[in-house]
Amino acid sequence: MIADAFRQGLFPAVPVPHEAGGRIDAEAHERYVEWMASQPIQGVAVWTDLGRGTKLGEAGRSFVIRAWRDGLGGGRSILAAVGPTTEERRPDLLIESAAEMARSAAEQGADCLLVLPPTLLRGARGGESPILEYHAAIAEAGLPMVVQYLNEAAGGVSYSPHVLAQLLARDDVFGIRIATLDSVMTYQQIVALVRRVAPTKLIISGEERFLGYSMMCGADAAIVGLAAACPSLLAEFVASFWQGEAARFLALNSVVDDFAQQTVLPPTQGLAGRLLCCLVHQGVLQATAAHDPWGPRIGPREFEQIGECLA
Q: Which of 30, 254, 263, 288 could cross-link 274 (Cys pair, CB 3.0–4.6 Å)?
């Protein structure tokens, strides 16, 4: 079962290297894939908000997913984040664009789908029905799904317990990724809900700023952007918890927290650029490829601070 392949797994949410002019740097991306293939990870999540999947365009998404599919190696999973690729507020057009992205992911070799919250459906007529229709349309692609509960400030939707219970009841949903950013209480409440209404479904942490505590609360796996820049550190960290190595876990927790405090901070749309800067400091990318066309510019002082943290 797919859930077994994900349990106790680490899946980096990967950014895409771009040139200053806004084009994908294909050579840099190839080097990044090759480097990541040598890391102790169980797969990657592409097309997420960090990977700018809904903004890349069909050709860009195709290039990215095929590069990871061909370069990552067998036995590892490709999660493709899917969501609306239109700014239209008509629910039918929004839902169809997300369904088309899901079909494309299936055709290009994704193993499962990571469903992006439909922020444009907030307050839509019909109450909760459009949210359920949205997930049902994406499910028609035929791949197993992970639903997401994301902080609204980071592009999420605050699904009600009633909606979450219905989504978790779907046979094609095998887990939920939770990324509240800064609400431990909300994380705890959602974990409790999952354990009560869908105890066989995986809880996947996306909590960059309290990753260690999120695992202590019951996370079965992690999909985090931090692992896109420091995969070996994050892999050792999560493994130390699941293997019961308490002293090692506590020691690494302070390191991971420090890393998160230097990268996961307002504006949150700058995280992709900060992770690309991390890869420059580690020699994986050239500075010319560390551009994110949709995020704020990373200035020289912030670039230096990131390097000091890594050192």
A: 263
Give, in degrees to the nearest 5, the angle at Cα 258 between 257 and 261.
85
Give the closest residue to 109 by CA, choosing from 147, 61, 148. Answer: 61
**Residue 156 tokens, joined:** 């999420």
Residue 49: other Cβ atoms inside 10 A: 24
What pTM, to 2 d.p., does this model score?
Answer: 0.96
> How do residues 116-164 score in pLDDT, each as one tens digit?
999 888 766 556 889 999 999 999 999 999 999 998 877 788 899 999 9
Residue 283 in contact with residue 235, Cβ under 8 Å?
Answer: no
Q: Record the tokens describing residue 206, joined without a space.
A: 């996306």
CA gap 63, 251 in Å, rounded: 39
CB atoms within 10 A of CB 26: 13
CB 110 within 8 A of CB 71: no
